[in-house]
Amino acid sequence: MDLAELWKIALAQMEVKLDSPAQFKTWFKDTRLLDVKGATAVIGVKNSYTSDWLQKKHMRMIRETLSYVYGSDLQVTFEIDKSLVNKPSPKITAEEIIKEAPMFTATYGQENHLEQTLKNAGLNSNYSFANYIVGPSNKLGHAAAVAVATKPGDSYNPLFIYGKTGLGKTHLAQAIARDLLETDPYKKVLYVSSEGFLNDMVKAIRSGKNIQFRQKYRTLDLLIIDDIQFISKWQETQNEFFNTFNVLYNDKKQIVLISDRSPDEIDGIEDRLRSRFQGGMTVDISKPDFEMRLAIIENKARMMGISLPMNVYEFIAKHVTENVRELEGSLQKISLYSSMVEEELTLEEVAKILGKDTVTKREKVKVPSILKHVSREFNITVKDLKGPRRTADIAFARQVCMYILREDFGYKLEQVAMYMNRKDHTTVLHAVDKIKSKLMIDDGFKNQVDMLREAIQTSDL
């Protein structure tokens, strides 16, 4: 039996044992058996994150399964396989992502102890890697967080996580802490906001307990500080945190920082502090795409005991795009309304409840504002947009504007033609069809239009 066949059989058995399509695709699918040297099997992986994760979470299963298929006991090692490095990751469906996985396996009595340990550390017991939905917008952040949880103080120190509000930065950071405490509940872990750090420092100064304050923060195994950007307001706090940072870093203790902006965008902090923020790994958590939003909604619904038709989940995922908190709020709102009526809600009713129906949209955003946004996006004037000129750039911008007026705001073809100073509504029909077709085949253009739509919905122009 050659190596490829041997590994194929072993993978098939491990896939059954895992009983998690998402886990298997993420960590096992892009691996190879490179060699068997004596009693040691060498497995090729894409990167160090995969190697660390497989060693920590699945080493025993891999070793036992491979030994059984091979016919004798084998030890297992991992190597980065260059042929796998640039191979695109397998696509994971929403159904696979939300497949239920145990959050914590414990004997009787240990769960309560864990809950108390998490509470003492300032952690939310609902935040873990097991229920963190991974997609293109946060894949790098998740991989870095897993690496930090595997080798705290060693892999990436500090880990600086930034992004807009409500995208799961705190969840990811606290998942690191939970993983560390599940492995060793005696580790000293603390999650605190920058304001909480300031308050502790002020209390220590007023009560003459500076030594106790420093002992509390400088003997930690893991320190997570949220909203670190606010530290720019307080000079003395910067000095104290700088010294705390140095002690923890020199002792190889892990530091995780959370912010709404990257280190180089934080005004008012000292250069020496900024350089330390940038000295480890900086990861950006961005807005989730449709597939990921749908997975998040289904997962949230399952956790909250909510059951709604799939087309409702898809509607929410399509129209609520800002952040995870808004998704959760929309889900709860629809669930509440649904419980108050006997019949299933129609999509028109769902749209009205969420303020996503065309009437509400038209009340919130007027046509002149839409024209201004489109004109600015394509670097032309509103006069050009509504005028007779037919150069390629103007005609294309005009078609995009017609598409948005028709598809997003539900105006009739005749109305769109009137707003755009066109005599014939068939021009609008042609424009809508053309833009629809381009959106289906051009991802770059789709991203541009999605951002334009979002700007139109949220701007005060």
The proportion of strand residues reads 5-15%
CATH superfamily grouping of the largest domain? P-loop containing nucleotide triphosphate hydrolases
Provide a count of the helices. Answer: 24
DSSP strand tally: 8
The structural domain count equals 4
Q: Regarding quaternary structure, how should these chains be classified?
A: single chain
The CATH class of the largest domain: Alpha Beta
* Gap from first CA to last CA: 68 Å
Largest sheet geometry? 5 strands, parallel
- The CATH architecture of the largest domain would be 3-Layer(aba) Sandwich
* Order of neighbouring strands in the sheet with most strands: 5-6-7-4-8
Helicity range:
55-70%
Structural category is alpha/beta
Classify the fold: give the CATH topology of the largest domain. Answer: Rossmann fold
What ranges have pLDDT less than 50 throughout 5 or more consecutive residues? 97-109
How would you describe the overall organization of this protein?
- There is one protein chain.
- The chain is of the alpha/beta class.
- The protein has 4 domains: 3-84, 2-Layer Sandwich (GMP Synthetase, Chain A, domain 3); 112-284, Rossmann fold, CATH 3.40.50; 290-356, Helicase, Ruva Protein, domain 3 (Orthogonal Bundle), CATH 1.10.8; 362-458, Chromosomal Replication Initiator Protein Dnaa, Chain: A.
- Helix content is 57%, strand content 9%.
- The chain contains 24 helices and 8 strands.
- The strands form 2 sheets. Strands 5-6-7-4-8 form a 5-stranded parallel beta sheet, sandwiched between helices. Strands 1-2-3 form a 3-stranded mixed beta sheet.
